[in-house]
Amino acid sequence: MSKNKCKAVALIVVFSLLASCIPSFPVLADPSSTLDKIKQAEQEKAETEQKKAETELQKQAKEGQLSELNIKQGDLKVKLNALNNDLAEAANNLDVVEGKIADKEAEIEKTLHEIEQARQTEEEQYEAMKKRFQASYESPKDTYFAILIGSTSFSAFLNNTDYLKMLADYDAKMLEKYKEAKEAVIAKEEVMEQEKAELDGLKAQIEAEQGRINDLISTTNMYVREYQAQINTANQEILAYQAEIESKEAQIAEQQENIEALQAQYQRELELSRQARAAAWRDISEVTFEDGDRYLLANLIYCEAGGEPFDGKLAVGAVVINRVLSSRYPGTVSGVIYQNAQFSPVGSGRLALALAEDWANAACYEAADKAMRGGTNVGNCLYFRTPLEGMEGTIIGGHIFY
Fold first, then answer.
1. Percentage helix, strand, coil, to 5, in the chain?
2. pLDDT per residue as tens digits for the range 285-338
3. Residue 362 to residue 332: CA distance in whole angstroms
4. Integer-rounded Cα radius of gyration of the chain
5. How far is CA 221 from the centre of its chain?
6. What angle do CA 367, 369, 372 make, to 5 degrees?
């Protein structure tokens, strides 16, 4: 191990021991750091409020969609109810028509029976006439001519003639009557067949209408189910949005409490800072620097302002020495630097690395020497940070000192 590295390790051990022996002082936090936290907390709260507002808009839009879905589904249910009524009416009409068809078929069956009877009666009458004519030839004594020749007087002849004519007329009339009756029944059958055909056609129309209504009911039911699925999804999304809104409200309330706590802390830190400035100050001649203070301060300056101009490096060193001089801070360089939560390179471990390899350059050592002699270009400032808009102080390089 090289001599310089041995020296660096030894110094780190010494500083660590010194830090562990430093008496406890109240931590004077940097008010601007708390102000940063307040601004960040306010920004985070504003972002949460924006997200809540966006979620509320999404919920409102989804509620609008849900309302439209309910209206459409309601319209479909009304239509479905009307279709079911139409279907019931068609079923009733079909029952009526089928009843009429059954009655008509019974009438037709009866008419067919009547036609058959009329046909048989006509045939019987025709056969009876044939038999009388046949008998007149086979039995001359019973023939019309024999009856006429056998008349005993002219008066009897006329009477027999009238009788024979009346008998023939009766046969002809009865035959004609039976024919007309048969034709009337046949005509009646044709009418009834036509009526049945019309009823069959009406039945087919009703059945077709039933099929159409059933198809519409099936389709409408499908749409009702689809709308119900969309309604269910919309309700779930609305519940999710509401849960998110409530979560954001709780988060906003928590963020507001945090902001108020930070604001109270900021006021306390401002008061402590004011008290620190008003506290008793030692003269640089009253300070006794320890071995390693120059090495420690130079490496802190490197970590905080290594890329800054010399004035920036001196200003950092001056802040450290100002704290050593203030009665509100530890009275040693190591005590000030290792005070809890004051210099970020300490907490991050970067200072330890710098000390291990002595990263400080000549300008850092020169700034440390000048500050330890009481040199300052920032007066009695006790804090520095990256500049904040509207913040008062002395800006040197990338820092503001206040």
1. 80, 0, 15
2. 999 999 999 999 999 999 999 999 999 999 999 999 999 999 999 999 999 999
3. 23
4. 62
5. 23
6. 105
The residues near 122 (Cβ < 8 Å, ≥ 6 apart) are: 175, 178, 179, 182
Which CATH class name applies to 3-44+262-401?
mainly alpha
Q: How far apart are CA 386 and CA 60, in angstroms?
A: 44
- 18/336 Cα distance (integer angstroms): 11
Kind and range of the H or E run holding 382: none
* pLDDT, tens digit, 9 for 90 and up, residues 141-200: 556 556 667 777 778 767 767 766 776 777 778 778 878 877 887 888 889 899 989 999
**Residue type at 319?**
V
The CB-side HSE value for 346 (13 A sphere, CA atoms) comes to 17
Residue 355 C-alpha from the chain's centroid: 59
E strand or H helix at 143: none
Distance separating alpha carbons of residues 272 and 33, to the nearest angstrom: 14
Read off the tokens for 95. 């029952």
Q: Specify the fold of 58-246.
A: Helix Hairpins (1.10.287)
Domain ranges of the chain: 3-44+262-401, 58-246
CA distances from 218 to 213, 214, 223, 228, 250 (A): 8, 6, 9, 15, 48
3-state SS of 7-34 is HHHHHHHHHHHHHHHCCCCCCCCCHHHH
- Which residue(s) pair with 396 in the sheet? 399
Question: Where on the phi/psi map is residue 298: left (φ > 0), alpha (ψ -120 to 50), or beta?
Answer: alpha
Evaluate whether 269 touches 31 at the Cβ level (below 8 Å): yes
Tokens of 220: 């409408």
CA distance 110 to 236: 69
* Token digits of residue 151: 């008349």
